[in-house]
Prior knowledge:
Elements (H helix, E strand, L loop, with lengths): L12 H15 L7 H14 L5 H9 L5 H11 L10 H17 L7 E7 L5 H16 L5 E8 L2 H9 L1 E3 L8 H7 E3 L4 E4 L1 H4 L2 E5 L13 E6 L8 H13 L1 E9 L12 E3 L6 E5 L1
The site of S-adenosylmethionine has 24 residues, from loops.
Amino acid sequence: xxxxxxxxxxxxxxxxxxWQYVLEERTGIFFxxxxxxxxxxxxxxxxxxxxLDYEQYYRQLTVGTGNAIEWTALLNTLTVKETxxxxxxxxxxxxxxxxxxxxxxxxxxxxxSVELWSVGCSTGEEAYSLAMIANDxxxxxxxxxxxxxxxxxxxxxxxxxxxxxxxxxxKLKNMDPSLCDRYLNCQDDNQYAIxxxxxxxxxxxxxxxxxxxxxxxxxxxxxxxxxxxIYFRRWRQKEVLNNLMRRLKPGGLLIVGIGEAIDWxxxxxxxxxxxKVQAYVRV
Length: 283
Ligand SMILES: C[S@@+](CC[C@H](N)C(=O)[O-])C[C@H]1O[C@@H](n2cnc3c(N)ncnc32)[C@H](O)[C@@H]1O
C-alpha cells in the first residue's frame, strides 16, 4: 500500500498532552478540547513530508536546531485563518466613528500620523479594511495627515497572501460597493487587487503574540484584535491584552472580539458604553 493511504493511529492521551504542551508553549494556542483538530493537522503535515510516526515527527520538531522551517509549515496547517473584510461590522463602524471624531476635534492635532494595528491579521482583509476606514476619515475631513497600518500574524503563509493583496470576488460580497470601487481594482478571473497606494500603507510582519516584547511597536491610535485570543487560555488572553494596552496612545482605541476575555479590565482603560462592540479607550 502506498504510504499516503496508510492510516495513522489516533494520538494516545500521552502523545496528545505532549503535542499540546509544546504547541501552547511556542504559540499560546491551547488545543485542550480539540484533539481531533490537532491530530488532523499533524497527520496532514506528516503525510506531506512522508513521516508516519508521531514520535519521530515530534523529535524532528523539538530536538536540535534547524527545525524552524518545519515549525512554520506545521503552523500554516494548524492555525485557523478564517477572516473577511469588515468582519463584525459594528466594530469597524466604531473605529470609523472614533477616528473621525478624534481627527475632527483636533485631539490628534500635533500627531504626524495616524497609526493602526491589526493583531492576528491572517490573510489581510482586516488590515485593509482598517486602511480604508482611515483613508475615508482623513480624506472626508480634507486633512493632510499620514496614516499607516501595521498588520501582524504568526503564520507566514497567511502573511504572504496578505502582502499579495489580491482577493476573489466572493470575498467582497458583504462589502459596500462604493468601497470596492474606490479601493480595489478588478483583474482577470474575478480577482480584485487592493489599490497599490493603499497597499503601501499596510506593513505586514510576523509576530508571535506570546513574544510581543520583540516587536518595537507602540503609540497606536487603534489596535484591533478579534478572533485571535479565543485560542488562548484566559490568563494568557489577559497578558496579551495588558501588553496591547501599553502600545496605545492616550485616547487610543482597543477593539476586542465581542465576548472575548470579558472579565478583563485595566485601570488605564475605559470600556466604551456601546453594547454591540467590546472596545476600550486609554485614558
Ligand atoms: C481566525 S484568524 C482571525 C483573523 C482576523 N483577526 C479576523 O478576525 O478575521 C486567527 C489568526 O490568529 C493567528 N494567530 C494564532 N496564534 C497566534 C499567535 N500566537 N501570534 C500571532 N498570531 C496568531 C492565526 O495565524 C490566524 O491568522
